[in-house]
Specification:
By secondary structure, the protein is of the alpha+beta class. It is 29% helix and 21% strand.
Length: 228
């Protein structure tokens, strides 16, 4: 099966989760969604990551982003692990894991969803279960309300993700959908943006009264005032 690409429709699936059974597309509804995989429950890097996501839940919610994590374990493990995440995460701030952690399948050996999304680790020989089956790597899928994959990132199992960067990209994608802009290197919300190449200069002056035309004719920047 070919790898999923940006612009593909995210495959639909059904799963048991810590929030009950879901149908993925139905669960997304009219929101954005982030599907992120974890090598396994009760693992150190994953525990720090899910604690961070729980603490940043409000940042995702105000962007209308739903969160769902996935790892190759059963629901009983997930429920017990949530206690560890909340306990360890409390060292850094209030940590309450409310997003659903999806169970790969009723029998975790199947790896059905991780195979569907091409999440399995083909590199790290230590990232295996007792039977030698690969766990997942740290993949991230940002999916828009039309169920289109807008971003994919893959980290090795040994490296924790940067959720500031994931939020930054969500901001860029959402602003680009609402306004005819793109975002430059190291951009953060509130910084100047780039006028989309499809916008003619005369139109740019109307749409963006503070536009700056640079020496390079293809490069036009502008402040963009947006509500938080």
């Amino acid at each position: 099966m070919p790898s999923l690409r940006l612009g593909n429709i995210a495959p639909d699936f059904e799963a048991e989760t810590t929030a009950g059974p879901i149908k993925f597309h139905e669960w997304i509804g009219s929101s954005w969604a982030i599907l992120f995989s974890h090598p396994g429950d009760f693992t150190p890097v994953c525990t720090t990551e899910l604690g961070e996501v729980a603490r940043r839940a409000g940042d995702f919610a105000k962007r209308s982003v739903k969160l769902i994590g996935i790892s190759a374990n059963g629901l009983r493990d997930h429920s017990k692990w949530v206690e560890d995440i909340s306990d360890f995460g409390a060292r850094y701030g209030p940590t309450n894991v409310e997003f659903p952690i999806a169970c790969i399948a009723i029998a975790d050996e199947d790896r059905k969803i991780s195979t569907l999304y091409d999440m399995l680790d083909e590199q790290d020989v230590t990232n295996r279960d007792a039977k030698g089956l690969p766990f997942t790597i740290r993949t991230v899928f940002v999916i828009d309300p039309k169920k289109v994959i807008r971003l994919t990132i893959a980290y090795p199992a040994s490296t924790g993700r940067n959720f500031d960067e994931i939020l930054r990209v969500v901001d860029s994608l959402q602003l680009g959908d609402r306004h005819r802009i793109t975002t430059p290197v190291n951009w953060n919300k509130g910084d100047d943006v780039i006028v989309h190449p499809s916008v003619a200069n005369d139109e740019a002056k109307v749409l963006f009264p503070e536009v700056t035309f640079h020496k390079q004719p293809y490069l036009r920047t502008t402040p963009l005032k947006v509500s938080e």
